[in-house]
Amino acid sequence: MYQTRRSFIKLAGASSAIAALGISAPSIGQSANKITFTTSWLPEGPNLFAYVARDKGFWKSNGLDVTVARGSGSGPTAQAVGANTFMFGMGATPTVMVQAAKGLPITSIAQLNYDALMGVGVLASSPIKTPKDLEGKKLGASVGSGEYPFLPLYAKKAGFDFSKVTLVQLDSKVRDRSLIEKLVDGVAAFGSSTIPSLASNGVDVRFMLFKAAGLEFYGQSLITQTARIKAEPAMCQAFVNGAMQAIQFVMTNPDEALAIFLKANDEVAMTASGKNYARIGLGLTNLTNLVPEVTNNGLGWADPAKMKSQAEIVLEFAAGQGAKLPEMSSLFTNQFAGKIKLSEAQLTQAKKMVEPYRKYVAS
């Protein structure tokens, strides 16, 4: 049982979106080991670990009884965690940075994966082989999507003239379909969502990643209220431990992890492409975790230099006027990360498991 204290967070400077949600800010102190957690989206590969952590007993073995709720986007998730509607959550790292810059008292306490897979997707048969080939072509993009603000910077780094690209504004709900029907030549999107969606339905797709041009963003962050880190460090450590143990498991036992996930989410299992959708999403997520941060420092650990660089880019291109990033020590911490590590045998196994998914993001 954890010793907790009751205190209230003053959401000074929080964005107007919180008010729109009608969320009040209850006290940080919660019932001993009852934990509320929200994913950033519907059940899919990047959040599959949470169902494994809950149903395989990783959180339970750390003394926690965790309720997993489904999210509706990284922005709303960050806002809900900032308002303490949920004690913990997960969100795209760039979006977490945007919300923190707008005043939300949230901190990243571990990385869940290490590449947002932002990029430009094209059909595998497309004559577009390099970013330069986008010149003179139609690029579908959704203004509300997380990668959209960084397109001009990507063009600059990748060496093509963005003014020579015809930008077609699309609703995110029809973006993938527009590519399939060849209404556009490519789409700007998160590969972590677009690739599984298309590939699981038999559409061969290939992504040119922002990362290949030197524009790197981490994937999903595990977040909580900044004040909770000091108020309840044992709880935070237990939660991160359970999450990282689950990620270690899904990286080395993807088939069993997928079975656990499908059992927990009947609506995914019942659809014709659901299993394949989740499998591809998990494969891509596991692929992004095979990075030096993990192999050298352990699961969840974030490179301070990379976090600082990403935060500066986010502030300049995505946070909006008047935004101000908090101190880096408030934006993220490695205090709870790096405790769970892959053995050499597990690392070898994980590398073998992700090989079928490299083809989707080959530069």
CATH class category of the largest domain: Alpha Beta
**CATH third-tier fold name of the largest domain:** D-Maltodextrin-Binding Protein, domain 2
Percent helix, as a range, is 40-55%
Reading the helices and strands in chain order gives: HEHHEHEHEEEHEHEHEEHHHHHHHHH
Outline type: globular
Judged by helices, strands and strand pairing, the structural class is alpha/beta
Q: Provide the β-strand percentage band.
A: 5-15%
Count of individual domains = 2
How many angstroms separate the termini? 49 Å
In the CATH hierarchy, what is the superfamily of the largest domain? Periplasmic binding protein-like II
Roughly what is the average pLDDT, rounded to an integer? Answer: 90
Strand order of the largest sheet: 2-1-3-10-4
Number of helices: 17
Describe this structure in words.
- By secondary structure, this protein is an alpha/beta fold.
- The chain has helices spanning 16-21, 48-55, 58-61, 74-82, 93-101, 151-158, 172-180, 191-199, 226-231, 233-252, 254-264, 266-269, 274-288, 292-297, 304-317, 328-331, 344-354; strands at residues 34-38, 65-69, 88-92, 106-111, 118-123, 138-141, 166-169, 186-190, 205-209, 220-225.
- Helix 11 packs across helix 13 (274-288) and helix 13 crosses helix 17.
- Helix 6 links the parallel strand 6 (138-141) and strand 7.
- It contains 17 helices and ten strands.
